[in-house]
Amino acid sequence: MDLGIAGRWALVSGASKGLGFGCAQALVQEGVNVVIVARTASAIEAAAVQLRDRAARGAQVIVVAADITTEQGREAAFGAAGGPGRDVDIMVTNAGGPPPGDFRNWDRDAWIKAVDANMLTPIEMIKATVDGMASRGFGRIVNITSSAVKAPIDILGLSNGARSGLTGFVAGLARSPIAAKGVTINNLLPGKFDTDRLAGTFAATAQKLGKSSDEVRATQAAQIPARRFGTPEEFGAICAFLCSAQAGYLTGQNILADGGVYQGTF
């Protein structure tokens, strides 16, 4: 299927590895020009090399090494030389989740940092781009959140709280007048995908239970109906479809990709 987005411009944050890289890769393979952002210059440059090798239809890849959770980082992303500025057609918001732990050990600063990165940063990025999308008659915004928004995980309380706030905000904005102007906003909720983030969660759980990370990994894989962890490539493919011309009637939704773990009907 041709997704009908070749030649458009996308901004993907947290794109040096994991799910963000998977999304950027799926987009460039569709011929979408991408501005990719991550904090570490060496990592984002290495990601760009891979993306350029896999790009279709002459898609461009522009690199920005910046912390997207800061105002300066966002300005750097939107001001990248050769990029579209704020006139992006597609935006994938993605920031590393806050650390796992026991809520008794989190002070106010920990909560503010989590909310700033995983709620307020996506909102600021949406604010900077959504009206331009509406004026041009096309826009796709995908926020990478977490399956914990739908089925909270006890050790991920910081993420549960901050990402749920973003989810509530998007539920209202997606159904505002921008919906009639070709702009969709959806959240993509990953379950257990084989990334560095998942490995860190395994390590925290292993420490809590007094087991090895390998034991935790095997136990958790066995609990997934698909009997495996997801891959960044298949996550990226879902993201690319949400950004497609064909997904124009899909907005304000929370798309859960978890291999069947969530047992609810709705």
Automatic annotation (TrEMBL):
Q: Which residues cross the membrane?
A: none
CDD domains the UniProt entry points to: BKR_like_SDR_like (cd05344)
Q: By its UniProt entry, which Pfam families does this protein fall under?
A: adh_short_C2 (PF13561)
InterPro entries named in the record: NAD(P)-bd_dom_sf, SDR, SDR_fam
Q: Which domain of life is it from?
A: Bacteria
Which family does the similarity line name?
A: Belongs to the short-chain dehydrogenases/reductases (SDR) family.
Q: What is this protein called?
A: SDR family oxidoreductase
